[in-house]
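REQUEST ID: PR-0412
SUBMITTED BY: lab tech R.K.
PRIORITY: routine
TASK: structure prediction, single protein chain
INPUT:
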Amino acid sequence: MTGGQAADGSCLCGAVRFRAELPSLFCAHCHCSMCRRNHGAGFVTWFAVPRDRLEVLAGRDELRRYASSTHGTRAFCSRCGSALFFETKSDPGRVDIPLANVDGEIDRAPQFHVFFDDRAPWIALADDLPRLGGPTGMEPLEG
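STATUS: complete
OUTPUT:
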């Protein structure tokens, strides 16, 4: 890492600590069923950085990986179960990080909703962020 602006974060118990060098690639709310189940939440806000700009500062031995689908792997803390990272085969140079696991702010606010047509029916949103969905989760939705 080059030592620029960074976002520090951790799991719930603090065993795994990380630093993501900014700028981020994006920040988005994901409504897919896998994210909802993995985090126990209505949706998950992710930000992404290039893989070489993520450093695990402590607890690397506590990280476990789970292939949640044929296209992605999720990493979590083996002590407390906190979801920490998502890696996709379609963009192997990128890692997604839950914004809620960061100690402070990052360089951008959430920019859009992905997999919006897969959202939990009890989620009501009042923002004007773009809503994306379809087979890829990233296609503009009408209406």
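NOTES: The chain has a mean pLDDT of 96.
REVIEWED BY: pending
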